[in-house]
Design brief:
The chain is an alpha+beta fold. It is 32% helix and 31% strand. The chain is built from six helices and 16 strands.
Length: 227
């Protein structure tokens, strides 16, 4: 399941993020890659734990917390602190699969990376190339979104970032451990939740159909969720 979440950040928030990141120190992006991914990765990142990464990351986490579409699609249990990368001309990230487990810095906890997220911080007209390419059972998806928009997709997907040929592509990326780890079950819950919202536009909450669908949704979450 690939979900586009428009305007996770407002234009003002995007501008603030960019201002903070422009003053940050950028390092080789291979620092957060596994052995195999490091061979395919050519980009820059703001080091984990830097003041800029913490401040902008907290802004992103607050935006996720108030976004109903992200909650519906991800059913988040834990979110890895957002990281930030850039692809200048000539940079790319060849096809790879994200590490299954990530240690939360300084916490002693680990998370299972069920879902990957890319939050675009550069408008698409500001750079050439730099598409996120996600391969799943439904084919190949090429993603290049407006600044402030986020795409959510299974971390188990083979994905890549095409070579940037002009300009610079900035983004935030992070992982989510879902309460429902099975992607098929999580997709069914997301589709059911979207259907309930649509039905409630024309029927009162007291309608037997709305009550029945809502009960089925919560009982499925109760059956499948792992806390």
């Amino acid at each position: 399941m690939l979900v586009h979440i428009p305007t996770l950040l407002t234009p003002e928030e995007v501008t603030h993020c960019r201002t903070m990141l422009e003053d940050a120190v950028w390092a080789d992006g291979r620092a957060t890659a596994g052995d195999q991914s490091a061979q395919a990765k050519v980009n820059l990142q703001v080091p984990e734990g830097s003041p800029a990464a913490r401040e902008v990351g907290e802004l992103v986490l607050q935006a996720l917390g108030r976004n109903a579409l992200f909650t519906s699609a991800a059913l988040p249990l834990r979110v890895f602190p957002p990281l930030f990368n850039r692809y200048d001309a000539g940079m790319h990230f060849d096809a790879h699969v994200d590490n299954a487990i990530r240690a939360l810095p300084g916490s002693g906890f680990r998370i299972r990376t069920d879902l990957s997220s890319t939050l675009f911080l550069t408008p698409p007209e500001a750079y050439e190339g730099g598409e996120l390419v996600v391969q799943d059972t439904f084919g190949t998806h090429r993603v290049k979104l407006p600044a402030g928009d986020l795409v959510l997709y299974p971390a188990s997907s083979l994905h890549s970032v095409t070579r940037v040929t002009a300009g610079s592509r900035w983004a935030s990326f992070f992982w989510t451990q879902s309460m429902v780890k099975d992607d098929g079950q999580r997709t069914l819950l997301y589709e059911l939740d979207r259907s309930i919202i649509a039905v409630r536009q024309s029927l009162p909450d007291s309608h037997p159909g709305v009550l029945g669908m809502t009960a089925a949704y919560h009982n499925l979450v109760r059956r499948w969720a792992e806390l």
